[in-house]
Each structure stands twice: as C-alpha cells, then as structure tokens.
Amino acid sequence: MKPIQILVVDMGSQYTLVIGRTLRELGFRAAVLSPGKVESWLKSNKPKAIILSGGSASVYEDNSPKPPKNILKLNVPILGICYGMQWLAHKTGGRVVAHHERKEYGEAVVRFDTKDLLFQGIKGKNVVWASHGDSVEKVPAGCKIIARSQDAKVIEAMSSPTKLIWGVQFHPEVTHTKEGKKILVNFLKRIAKCEKDWQPADIVNDIRNETARIAAQKKAIIGFSGGVDSTTLSAVLAPVFGNKLLAVCINTGGLRRNELEEIKFNAEAAGINLKIEKAAARFRKAIGRQTHSELKRKRFKKLYGRILEEEAKRFKADFIVQGSLATDLIESGSAGKADLIKSHHNVGLNLKVKELHPFRNLFKYEVRELARSLKLPSSVSERQPFPGPGLFIRIIGEPPKKDKLDIVRWADGEVTDILKKQKAYDSVSQLIVALDCQRTVGIKGDGRVYAYSIIVRGVRTLDFMTAEGVQFPANVRREISSTVTKHPKIVRVFFDETNKPPATTEME
Ligand code: XMP
Fold it and tell me: What's this model's pTM, rounded to 2 decimal places?
C-alpha cells in the first residue's frame, strides 16, 4: 500500500470527519489524527500536505488544541481551515481577535483573488459556509490576503507560498461552500502535488495480493468479534484463504443480548467459516472475585490470548490474523514500523503464534468504507465499538457474577431498543450501559427495596481520544428510566453526560 500523503489534524471541529470523507470522495486518502497523536505518526510518515481542521476553541484558551510546533518546519504545504487558519496566523506573527460584529454563522459571500493557486478556476465572487466567532485581524508578515467577505470586514483567506501556508476562514469541506471541493483539489494537486490514491477496490486488492503468498501454503484463524474490523477483514481475506481461514468467536459470557446471533449473521455476510468457542465459565473463574477494572482487564486478556492460541493449535493454524488498525499501532508507539507479519503483538496479546496485521495501515473510517464497498450490511459497516472485556467492565466495583451480568445485559438490551425505536441510536458513536453495584433505597409496590442503579452514557467522538457526552432528549430519558426500573433489582437510572476528558468512555 502506498504511503499516506495527507495528514488532517483534528483541532476539535464537528466537520473533521467530513474533511476526511470529502477527500476520499475526491480520491485521496488521509490520516485524520488528534493533535496528541501527530508527533508519533510523523516519526514514520512523510506527508505531502497537511490540513488543520476547524475547532470551537480560541487560540488564546489555555487548553486549545495545538499540533506539535515542528509541523511548521516540515517544509510541507499546510492549509488551515477556520480555527486552523487562526492557529497558523497566531503562531506565525499575525493577530487573531474575537470581534462579535465579525462573527459569521451560515452562508457568506466572499471575493476571491483567483490568481492565487488555491482559488484558480473558481468564480471571483462566491458563496461559502462559515461558522466562527474569532477571526484573523492581521495576517502574518509575508502572508497575503487572498479573500475577503463582501463587506470586506472579514479576512476570509491568506497565503504565503514561501512559508507554505494557506488559510481559509470558511469551511471548504461542507457542500454549502459552492466551490469548496475545487479549492481542496487545488490545495492537494496544484500546491501539494498529491496524487489520487483512494479507491476502496484497490485497497482490498492490495491486501489480498499481500496475503496471497502466505495463504497459498498456510492456515490461519482470525479472532472474530462481529465488529467492523474483524468482520471486514474476514470478508477481505475469505476469498484468499478459502477453507484455510477460520473465524473464532470466543463467547466470554460478557456479550450483549442477541449478540451471538448478530455475530453469526455478520460472519455469514463476510463469507467466513465461524466457530463459536464457549468459554463463559472459564472467564468467570479467571476474573474470580476481582473488582479492580485494570486487573479484570489483565486477567481477561491473558485468558483470551490463551484460548486463541489453543484454537490456533486445534486448527493447526500457522498464523492468527488480527484486525489491528493504524491508530492501535500509533498508540502502542509502533506506527509505521509494523510489518505484515509479527511474532509479538505489541498492541496487547503477546501471542506465541505469529500474527498477521493486514489492516495495520488503515483507519477506522476507512475500514467502514471498505465494508460499504464490499456491500457488507450496515450491521457491520456502521457497528458501534464494544470492548473485548464487554459487560465485565460494566459492572462497577463488583466481580462480574452471573446475576449482575444478567441485569446489565438486560438493561443494555432495553436501552438499545428504546434508542433505536426513538431514532437516537445512530447519532451516538458508542452507547455504554453500566451497573452501579452501590445499593440505594427505593420503593417498589408498597415495599422498600435496597438495590442497584443503571448508568446510561452516550458519546460522540471522532477517535475516542476525546468525546462529547450526549444529552438524550427528555422523552427518551423518561422512557429509559421508566422501562429500566421495572427490573426488581434496579431502583435508579443515572445519565452520564460528562465529556472525555475528564471522564473516559467506559465507566471502569
Ligand atoms: P475509554 O474508556 O478509554 O475507551 O475512553 C475508549 C474506547 O476503547 C474501548 N475500550 C476497550 N476496548 N478492551 C477493548 O477491547 C478494553 O479493555 C477497553 N477499554 C475501553 C471503549 O469501549 C471505547 O470504545
């Protein structure tokens, strides 16, 4: 697979994913990363173009998103969008101000200098979509103003070909900006000399070709959770390996309601042979009376790895296929160094059997598009993530005993059904339903009960590094609390709307 040419830094905008998607529509792959991951990614990648997204912060806020400073010294053309432009101006000697009479929200008419490479081939006066309070009042020395709002109050774009800096105050990635796509293509092709490289069918073929030699002589198993990564990877590899690849789903006992049926459905859609290994009792025993979340995770992981090794031996597999993505490898500090084959899985499991990592250069949003291009059902391509240790880490402060697992599984199923019925499920990136084992007093019928609480949390996020806590509408919250408290052991429902940070996505 060719190296990624474009780095998009997510500076906190709700449109960052739209930038990535628009670039793919235009035929370009991009790594979309939060600022914290950029430095380690840059150690092993050489982008030809960098885009800094918009964001809701002000450059003067203490905790405003900041890419690493050396990004300005890479000798790579940078396009700052909205907050991204303000950050560029602020860092290179310009002035950003919060002028309320200059704020824009919605369509704006802009006059462009069409001699600048960024605006070549577009109309001199055009409609854009803008959303900002702060704006650049003075461009840095050496930068030219290349667009202004019709009333000339707002500096809408700046450029410095010698400093390799371009900035636009509006959003070229949204469709309301009439010629936004042309502007992005100008930046990528005319300025940064990038070539088109995103074609899902080509990526699928690259991975198939890369694994074909191994598949000719070897057998492999793939740990199958039914999630987007393992299912899509199975669909990519099934035609290459044929019967020499077996999907193994370990039923840990921590799965959600109906999850086994969904796993079977997804395996069939991927065209892969599936074995379900029942291991609930082994996991309960391994975790034992452990209440500490990290220790629950460690014990879970150890047994999970051991069972995978047992299954590999049983199938006489030479390899275990893993769906590790570029982001997993970035987090483990091995981005770019990863080969197709590794004998040690530095992302986590440390298996004795060799592993294959065919998705090591891909990002989640790309895997979702591969799934769509392979015509996998939306139960695969749009599937929310679910942690390996599953419901075990959603029983807070108690060992995951069967009675507690049953309660949290039931509550999770009910909340999921309500959100789907109310069309609120697809708008969250992940739903978390947890059991708080601290008992509190309640009244059921005429009697006093002393029982548990359920915590419901929805998050919206790009990459789970940061996340926004979702506020469900009042009628949805009411339906959830009245339904869930029908369980004899549940007396209260809490809704957790905290952002990450400071909270994490999971409760434990
Ligand atoms: P946090 O809680 O760290 O979660 O904000 C971020 C994302 O990671 C998932 N997660 C896990 N996935 N094993 C997994 O396979 C785990 O132990 C684990 N812990 C968290 C979490 O569900 C969210 O999607």
Answer: 0.82
